[in-house]
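sry for the spam today, last one i promise. struct tokens for design, 377 residues
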């Protein structure tokens, strides 16, 4: 196998897009086609858009309760957490913030105003529990639709290497300018070459630390599905289902067993793929909050999805890179270095993402579908 082929295929996108590979069975990407079409309940309609939000490892840990009229209550599915790499459910909470932002946007697009109450029964600490994350009461009211709503279907997490094109200062300010301010979350972009060079090294270091921390690495691999059939059966997690990946899986080169074992082709090529991604970062985006409350995490998640939608609007690709921000012990040196670099005045970096121009269009990530996430259905 040629290394370049493997790298291209690990990204998945180019080949998938070119061939339009259709997995057998249910289409794991069906949720991206006409979200909400045919729904008469405005809550279900808006939720069909909200479940397209970026979320850690695509775990989609959302349980929605619609039992109270005009009300949407979100609970966490505690079987869909990331206990090693996200020990305090900080990132899972960010994903809920992103979901909430798309929910309110989609309600607004239908002329519904949303009254949001975060953690109505109190902020769960140090871990999320059975209490609700948010409650949204809707009412028919004149609202002006957010222009970024139109970008939801274009938004992607693009892990591939980016082109040589630099992200210039005007592109960076367009990106930031597109983000409605979210109180408590401060969004930043750097296009300064020396700083980008330091960040490329640090993000890769975070990935390398994770790969060599067995509990963390295994957690990611366990949530990875390889091949069209496996992804169709598991429309969540990290999906490697391009035709080439499927073939590599069939011949036994790319399997979960191989991915966890240092020294195998699967292990080494995964790291090379990440290195190529880090090395082609043309800018970095990050979000800080002054404190690290659950409300801060929700705010950061809202700001992140806005940035990701703004990037889509301006033709920029975006890829969160979270390992070095995670709380487990072996990441501490990277965590500290990132905070020295990006938050020298204090505060918590909640999100860090590389930015560049995409090589090719990539398909959306699978979704479980709304029906799988409704309570008591
Ligand atoms: C809080 C948070 C952290 C994330 N961290 C990473 C990361 O470290 N690496 C990565 O490749 N993707 C990361 N992602 C992106 C998710 O993996 C992605 O949103 C998910 O797989 C669904 O794909 P989509 O964004 O294309 O819909 C993160 C997303 C969120 C919200």
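last one done:
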């Amino acid at each position: 196998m040629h290394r370049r082929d493997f790298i291209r295929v690990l990204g998945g996108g180019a080949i998938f897009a070119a061939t339009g590979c259709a997995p057998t069975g249910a289409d794991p990407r069906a949720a991206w086609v006409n979200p909400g079409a045919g729904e008469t309940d405005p809550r279900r309609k808006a939720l069909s858009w909200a479940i397209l939000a970026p979320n850690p490892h695509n775990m989609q840990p959302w349980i929605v309760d619609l039992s109270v009229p005009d009300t949407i209550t979100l609970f966490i599915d505690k079987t869909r957490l990331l206990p090693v790499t996200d020990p305090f459910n900080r990132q899972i909470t960010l994903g809920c913030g992103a979901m909430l932002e798309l929910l309110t946007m989609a309600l607004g697009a239908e002329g519904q105003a949303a009254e949001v109450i975060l953690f109505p029964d109190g902020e769960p600490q140090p871990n999320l529990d059975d209490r609700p994350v948010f409650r949204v009461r809707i009412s028919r009211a004149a609202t002006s639709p957010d222009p970024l709503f139109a970008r939801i279907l274009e938004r992607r997490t693009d892990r591939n290497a980016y082109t040589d094109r630099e992200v210039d200062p005007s592109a960076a300010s367009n990106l930031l300018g597109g983000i409605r301010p979210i109180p408590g979350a401060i969004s930043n972009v750097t296009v300064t070459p020396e700083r980008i060079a330091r960040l490329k090294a640090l993000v890769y270091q975070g990935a390398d630390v994770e790969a060599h921390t067995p509990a963390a690495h295994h957690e990611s691999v366990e949530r990875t599905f390889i091949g069209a059939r496996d992804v169709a059966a598991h429309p969540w997690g990290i999906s490697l289902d391009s035709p080439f990946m499927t073939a590599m899986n069939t011949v036994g080169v790319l399997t979960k067993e191989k991915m966890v074992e240092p020294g195998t082709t699967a292990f080494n090529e995964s790291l090379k793929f990440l290195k190529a991604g880090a090395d082609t970062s043309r800018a970095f985006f990050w979000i800080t909050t002054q404190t690290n409350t659950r409300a801060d995490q929700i705010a950061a998640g809202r700001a992140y999805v806005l940035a990701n939608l703004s990037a889509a609007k301006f033709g920029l690709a975006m890829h969160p890179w979270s390992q070095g921000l995670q709380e487990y012990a072996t990441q501490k040196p990277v965590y500290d270095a990132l905070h020295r670099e990006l938050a020298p005045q204090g505060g918590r970096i909640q999100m860090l993402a590389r930015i560049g121009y995409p090589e090719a269009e990539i398909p959306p990530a699978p979704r479980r579908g709304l029906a799988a996430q409704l309570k008591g259905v």
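Strands lie at 62-65, 71-76, 112-118, 134-140, 186-190, 224-226, 238-240, 283-289, 317-320, 348-356. ok im logging off now
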